[in-house]
Amino acid sequence: xxxxxxxxxxxxxxxxxxxxxxxxxxxxxxxxxxxxxxxxxxxxxxxxxxxxxxxxxxxxxxxxxxxxxxxxxxxxxxxxxxxxxxxxxxxxxxxxxxxxxxxxxxxxxxxxxxxxxxxxxxxxxxxxxxxxxxxxxxxxxxxxxxxxxxxxxxxxxxxxxxxxxxxxxxxxxxxxxxxxxxxxxxxxxxxxxxxxxxxxxxxxxxxxxxxxxxxxxxxxxxxxxxxxxxxxxxxxxxxxxxxxxxxxxxxxxxxxxxxxxxxxxxxxxxxxxxxxxxxxxxxxxxxxxxxxxxxxxxxxxxxxxxxxxxxxxxxxxxxxxxxxxxxxxxxxxxxx
Length: 336
Fold this sequence. Notes:
Elements: H1 32-58, H2 61-68, H3 72-86, E1 91-93, E2 98-100, H4 102-126, E3 134-140, H5 142-146, H6 148-159, E4 163-169, E5 183-187, E6 196-203, E7 205-209, H7 211-217, E8 231-234, E9 239-242, E10 245-248, E11 255-257, H8 260-268, E12 273-277, E13 291-293, E14 297-298, E15 302-308, H9 316-334
Parallel strand pairs: 3-4, 3-5, 8-11, 8-12
Antiparallel strand pairs: 1-2, 5-15, 6-15, 7-12, 7-13, 9-10, 9-14
């Protein structure tokens, strides 16, 4: 389809095909009204193309709508308008799934590359500004979302107040691209994926008790001493690291939980000695600081990672948060 609204001879590039007409042109000799109309047309086309790419990347119109922050009906209408303009079907739609047509697959590859070039160019220009901006969407498991992340985010925003942060706490593995998430905290070992991985630190867990409990019942000096204590069990514990060797630990626990925060609450109530990840040792509002017992026993270290989607240019808000957190995470753990 060839735009023919403007006949100004100087504008040779307007006679190009529609699939490439969204690229910048030198609008020599067009008055300001024509310039404005032309820019609006190009913006509409880029918008349609962006929506088309996001729909196929997200796997559904509804998922793309969530990513783009627009109604599903608008997303569907933009794809339909793009197909009408190009005169071909780009996406096969069924009640259960959608997939690109052969023409859609070819168009997707070209459009994705073009959009990446535009995003890269804009991001590189924006990188000249040292102050990161925008909204950082970060996800992590509950134990870190409630313990480690709040302090990191508080300190980060003190340094970079222009960045807004949205924390999504979940114990499932999120699809970062489909759900529009910038950054995720994952606990290793990690499965192979296309994501970029940055190690933060090695984490561990150990045995903890309240000071009041230890005052009443004494502090165990050996693993065998735990037989004379009340135990708050965790459903997944059992193996501990002792002097470089893995040992199996079986404890008789009258109270057991599969949630660390429930276990922490039992320990806060002076009900016994229990296993917790190290970040949960520190006192929080309404809670007391716990005491580490049998410190020579700890869980085998498990690495903590940041992962984020592979992209040609990482937004400044992501880069600065990763670097900031990597510097402070160890300090936060060691100070507990």
